[in-house]
Sequence to fold (293 residues):
Amino acid sequence: MRVMIFGAGYSGKAIGRLLSGQGASVAGTTRSAEKRKALVAAGIRPFVFDGATLTEELLGELSETTHLVQSIAPGSEGDPLIRLCGQAGIKTIMPKLEWIAYLSTVGVYGDHNGAWVNEETELKPVSVRSVERVEAEQAWQVVAARDDLPLAILRLSGIYGPGRNTFMNLANGTARRLVKKDQVFNRIRVEDIAAATAFLAGPKTAGIFNVTDDMPSPPQDVVTEAARLMDMEAPPEQPFETADLTPMARSFYGENKRVSNAKIKRLGFNFQYPNYTMSLEDLLGSGSWNQKA
Fold:
């Protein structure tokens, strides 16, 4: 297995670390040369990709790629990798490609007033970025169908893990307990994203899969539990309606749903961190909560 991860950021590095540990040859892209060392530390051969051009060095690597993981968010102009492939198709630059994974978001479902959603639920994206994700999912489906390639779309919920979690927010004084009536969110530990990707990559499984925990919960409850575990006083509750939030932060609260992960579990995948309570205990107990992300 020769893997290329486009956008080897927080999730991409976790995927690369796991796959390289399993014996795969893993490469990945970053936008800046300064971040190359972090990729090397994760077992990933680094390539710089500016989102607009494919260097000769990168094209050489892509010519040997068998498994593609695309985690770069689309913009108003669409998915950058599809745009670079043009009308010729992805096989022109990756002739040995056997499987594609596209990392999307549960934001594509939009607002369902707290109801449960699954992979068959109607997509009703609210934010511009979620609309762009739906368009990118559809574009990758066209690309995969054209070249008869298996495509796995992983719809991820709120990502957290070592170096990026509520403990970090409590420690640096940025944690808040915002309360909006009946609001719930799902979450996903970054290691489970990596494990789900590896699980699907091995047999080159195609389909759409929600990669999320079992425990959609009010966001303030997570802060309360983390503060309890750290033996700290939790910050006071604040009404969402009067809180000072950026437009992006506020937009997250416009989508209220409970996301089911039953489909990927039916294939035999087991989440290592199925709920935030045991995951927070693990992060704190292992001392990994404040590791560099």
